[in-house]
Structures are given as C-alpha cells and as structure tokens.
Design a protein that fits this description.
The protein is α+β, with helices and mostly antiparallel strands and about 350 residues long. Helices cover about 30% and strands about 25% of the residues. The protein contains eight helices and 17 strands. Strand 2 and strand 3 form a beta hairpin.
C-alpha cells in the first residue's frame, strides 16, 4: 500500500500588506505571531500597538489551549468530550457550562439541518481508518458494518433548560468535534478581540484551515485572502483570491488533500460520509465556506463536501453562507454572493 499523509498547517494562505497608507503613519504596522495549538499552526496578524498585539496573541493562544485541553480533545482524559465519551452507552449524564452548551446546540442543529452529512458521533468509524494515528488504512469491513447502525447524532441527547444544560449518549458512540474544532477556535479568538475594539484596528487569525477576519486595516482597504489550491502540486500555490470587505468574516476549507492515502490508484481521504462510513464520493475535492460564525463555517465546509454542490445550496442558504466548490474535473463553482469578490488564479481550472 502506498501511504500519503499531507498535513498542511494552513489551507487558506493569508496575504496582508505590511505597508501603511499615506496619512496613517500614526497607526502601527501589523504585528505577526505564530504558535501551535489544537494540533495545528496558529497564525495571528494584528493591527494594533505592539503591547496590545502581544497581549491579544498571548490571550488567544491561552484560550485555544484551554479549549483543546478542557473541552474538545478526545485524547485529553479530563476534557469535556473525553468525559462524555466515557459515559457512552451507560446512560451517564454530563453537565455543560454555558460555553459547552453553545457548542452542542449549534453542532447538533447543523447535524440535523444537513441531514447527517455533518455528524459528530462517528469518532469510532474515523478511528477505523487510522488517519489520526499516522497509520491510514482500509477499515475492517466487519467492524465497519457493525458500527454504522450504532452511530448517529440522534444518539446524542442534549438538554437545555433555564438553569442548566447536559448531554448523554444513548448508544456506544465516540464524539469527535474535529470537524468544527478549528472554527470554534476562531470564534474564541473573536471573543478575545472584542474587548480590544478601540485598540485593535483589525486582525486576521488562522487556526489550521479556518480563518477569522476582524476589523479593518489602517487604510480601510479590503482583506485579500488566497484560497489554497487543492492540487498545488500542479505548480500554483493558491486557487484564487477573495477580496473581503464585510467583517467579521469566518472562512473554512475542507479538502481531500488534507489527510489521505492511496491504494491501488484510489485516493482515500479523511472526510467520511456518515451514511457509508467511507470517504465522501460527492465529486468534490475542495469546499471553502464563508459566513458569520466559525463553528458553522467549519461544519458547513464538511457537510457541503459530503452533500455535493446541488444539495449544499439550500443548507448554505439556511445560514446565509457562501461557498467555493472545486470538483474532480477542476471546475470551480462559486455561490452568488462571491461572484464579484473571488478571482480564479490557478491554471488548469475553469469556472
């Protein structure tokens, strides 16, 4: 078996001009910082004075580490997701704080609206493929056949009242919030930035394949965001450019190039269709989603990848979101709201 694992730290390349406009000399140059959290590279570009920028960057990294270790990581034994997974199938109930309650409410709403194309309950199926153990391989068919009917977001019992929220699992499933984790990280970064509104003119924060665009550059020019080329081996680093004016904006990309292996000439990627337990075969190789929430942009990029273009359009409309689709024939389709702000750059692609 030929194994290929491609761990790209950032799937959307950010281009931010370091030049200040004429007459803006009293405003600071952008501050840039790079860190590591949630299993990926975190890049921050912040327009503020140096002390404020450093503080913002430190706070974002601290919050992201808290998010990973205390909430979302299924590897960290004391995290919320791990504690919930330990109750799997035995009727145990785990109380949620306000932050976790919001995660669950939005995540399960998206699972339902997508008809299960996005489903956080398939952790055990994902494990069968070995993508996160650096040992990707075809799953045992007997195990897969046994697991499929036991998985499903409907087995996640979320209850929310005025005084408390809780969750329990009514099937022996494993929760995996990896498909929304980086987007949630961008939501957390946004929460960190808001109190600094008067001191931070603007920022671009990337957490792996998800990006937050906040505020404005000193010259009020649009943000130029380059969307990654899903077949960059062709020679072009990026697919095209987005010219972003409406902010805040959250952008997430899902593609078959992120984690995959090949066997007998077939590419098996990590975006699993919950209905089949196999990598999605919707005819797409990349989906980029823009909307006003990080969790939703991240989850939608996965759901739309599984659904395909036609079935994605109503779901995107539900969330007032826009998308860029790239199919196996290298045809690029953009939704109506992006037609005037996306420019295709890479050779070999067509609209």
């Amino acid at each position: 078996m030929k194994k290929i694992m491609k761990y790209a730290a950032i799937f959307l390349f950010i281009t931010v001009s370091a030049q200040l406009c004429s007459g803006c000399a009293d405003r600071p140059a952008p501050y840039s910082d790079t860190g590591y959290a949630m299993g990926t590279i975190v890049n921050s570009t912040i327009y503020a004075n140096k002390n404020v920028s450093e503080k913002i960057s430190e706070d974002i990294m601290e919050e992201l580490n808290d998010l990973e270790n205390n909430y979302l990581s299924w590897r960290a034994g004391d995290s919320l997701i791990s504690r919930i997974n330990k109750t799997s199938g035995n009727g145990g109930i785990v109380t949620l704080d306000d932050r976790a309650s919001l995660f669950f409410r939005k995540t399960l709403e998206l699972a339902e609206k997508s008809g299960g194309a996005f489903d956080p309950s398939i952790g055990k199926i994902i494990d069968l493929w070995g993508f996160y153990d650096n040992d990707p391989h075809l799953p045992d068919q007997t195990q897969l056949k046994d697991l499929l009917p036991k998985c499903g977001y409907k087995y996640i019992n979320y209850k929310d009242s005025k005084n408390s929220a809780s969750v329990s699992l009514s099937s022996d499933i494993k929760l995996d919030f990896g498909a929304v984790g980086k987007g949630i990280g961008c939501d957390i970064a946004y929460d960190v930035l808001k109190p600094y509104r008067s001191g931070a003119f603007g920022a671009v924060i990337s957490v792996g394949g998800s990006i937050l665009i906040y505020g404005n550059k000193p010259d009020n020019s649009p943000w130029d965001i380059a969307v990654a080329n899903p077949r960059s081996s062709d020679g072009d680093d990026y697919l095209g450019m987005l010219n972003i004016k409406d902010i805040p904006c959250f952008i997430s990309t899902s593609g078959d190039y992120e984690k995959y292996f090949e066997k007998d000439g077939v590419r098996y990627h990590h975006i699993i269709d919950p209905k089949t337990g196999y990598p999605s075969d919707s005819g797409l190789i990349s989906v980029t989603v823009l909307c006003d929430n990080g969790l939703i942009s991240d989850g939608l990029s996965t759901a739309c990848f599984v659904l395909g273009i036609k079935r994605s359009v109503p779901l995107l409309s539900e969330y007032n979101a826009e998308a860029i689709f790239v199919d196996t024939d290298k045809k690029v389709t953009v939704t109506e709201g992006l037609k005037d702000i996306f420019t295709l750059k890479a050779s070999g692609y067509k609209k």
